[in-house]
Amino acid sequence: EKVQKRQFAFFSKGRIDYSPYFEQIELLIQAMEEKRICLVRYKAAGKSQAKEHRFAVSRIISMNNALYALGAGVTEDFKKLRHLTSLAVHRIRDVILTDKPVLFDIPENDPGMFGLPWHEPRTFRIRFKPGKAADYVRERIWADQQKLEEMNDGGVLLELTTRSEPEITAWVRSFGEDAELLFDAAKNDGDIHVRR
Length: 196
What we know:
Number of helices: 3
Strand content: 35-45%
Helix content: 10-25%
Number of strands: 9
Radius of gyration: 20 Å
Strand order of the largest sheet: 4-3-2-1-5
Oligomer: single chain
Order of helices and strands: HEEEEEEHEEHE
Distance between the termini: 54 Å
Shape: globular
């Protein structure tokens, strides 16, 4: 009886039912295994119409209760990497495998970095006021490349490297008045600039 009783449970808010997307997932896996480019019809958030993308998939990842296909957008001639990108699997409407092989290397995405890849790695600093927000941040690892500095007032200064400015900005905003994004080190000369 003790062995059968579950000792741990996973609670998730806002989960997605992926059963309607099994076919798309299987085709993405096949494209990865066979190193083939696929055509993906994708309906981005807030858009009324789906758009077709030439896509070379490198990996499927799970983050924040959602699955994402990481890879690269491909040039019209199917020969070169245009840009790194990620596609939310539940927004993929259709996947068509082409006979075009992936002729380039796709840089590996670092799972130890904060967020999904949108741009080259950049370092950000965030100040958290003393209290619950600072305690919450202290208790977790946010990125493999991070530094935590204790402030004299009981707050904490977090410096981390990410390839996802949109996610870091949204995350900081979620703390309201308890957090300030001070600066993006790549865009500044070392001076602290508060971004609100």
